[in-house]
Amino acid sequence: MLHFPGGSHPRISRASRTLPRKHARRVAALLTVPLIAVSAAACGDDGSSDAKPPAVSGAWGKKPKIDKGEGDPPSELQAKVLKAGKGEKIHKGDAVSAHYVGQLWNGKEFDSSWKRKAPATFQIGTGKVIKGWDEALVGKKIGSRVEIVAPPDKGYGEKGQPPSIPGNSTLVFVVDLEKIAPTKIDGKPVDEPQNPQLPKVSTKVEKGKAPSVEMPKGKNEAPDELISETVIKGNGKKAVDAGSTISAHFTAKSWNGAKQLDDTWAQGGAPQEIPVAQIPGWAKGLKGATAGSRVVVSVPQSEFPKEQRKQFKDGVVFSVDILEVK
């Protein structure tokens, strides 16, 4: 994934979070991912171990205080609903937006969405996050606070997630389940020819799949100025401005050779919460766009911070599906 300073993703995903097993760092590589992501099975609320989960204090929606574990950690997954929500149940494949904090059994914190000041969104129950999350959260209701104690085989196993998570670590999470997020846009294609200066981006919307991006023939350099175009127009009430955070899927390619730089659809199936100011060109290129839209943005090298211009010397073209504007 493209990574820009100040990213907002957790350590839970198998492939792209710090909880996640692999944390790919590309354009938003300049975005940071959470530590959660990995598979599923069913689990009881308490497991069969006599070990008790650490005590948790604090109100739902605010970062909790979690005591360190005492004695030997449990050998089986434990999931305890600390506050029962009244929202819809989470099903396998749902994209769930949540705030969470994770720490080791000894009380050392390794990840917190509250510190990033944005919830994390991840697909649950399909192997995209660690087993402890997949197994504990399917069936829980939105609005709930859930404590998860994940033994090594439900987390990062023998290898861990260095340097913050040693091998064979038991992990403790408190998760506030905020909502089930939309996973695809619902706008309508714009009835005008697409700008020939930009790549031709498909207006077909397929769940779980990025649109095709066809680079202009004979064009191997990005335009000198930032150019953007809405190819699918949504009917959301709130428009993107410079201070917006959006829930989005996006794909990114370099102009020279059309090298694939990023594709959120391929990284776990869930959209990402991204402040538009965080990715070069987005605040300008997405300004005025509404939820449900697909916007193509060509970002020249000059829009990137000096220390990143060599990395993106060919310029970058983004196709961004805006699911929500916050």
Write the layout of secondary structure elements.
Elements: E1 2-3, E2 11-12, E3 26-29, E4 35-36, E5 56-57, E6 65-66, E7 78-83, E8 95-104, E9 109-112, H1 113-116, E10 120-123, H2 131-137, E11 145-150, E12 171-181, E13 188-189, E14 200-201, E15 213-214, E16 227-233, E17 245-254, E18 260-263, E19 272-275, H3 282-285, E20 294-299, E21 316-325
Parallel strand pairs: 1-3, 2-4
Antiparallel strand pairs: 5-6, 7-11, 8-9, 8-10, 8-12, 11-12, 13-16, 14-15, 16-20, 17-18, 17-19, 17-21, 20-21
EC number: 5.2.1.8
Region (Disordered): 1-20, 43-74, 185-221
GO molecular function, one term: peptidyl-prolyl cis-trans isomerase activity
Main traits of this protein?
single chain; 326 residues; mainly beta; Chitinase A, domain 3; 6-stranded antiparallel sheet; disordered N terminus; FKBP2/11; rotamase; peptidyl-prolyl cis-trans isomerase activity; EC 5.2.1.8; PPIase_FKBP_dom
Number of β-strand runs: 21
Q: Are there runs of 5+ residues with pLDDT below 50, and where? A: 3-10, 14-26, 28-34, 37-48
What would the average pLDDT be, to the nearest integer?
Answer: 85
Shape: elongated
Domain tally: 2
Radius of gyration: 20 Å
Supply the helix-strand structural class: mainly beta
Biggest sheet character: 7 strands, antiparallel
Terminal-residue CA separation:
22 Å
The amount of beta strand, in percent, is 25-35%
The CATH class label of the largest domain is Alpha Beta
Biased composition (Basic residues): 11-20
Protein name: peptidylprolyl isomerase
Region (Disordered): 1-20, 43-74, 185-221
InterPro entries: FKBP2/11, PPIase_dom_sf, PPIase_FKBP_dom
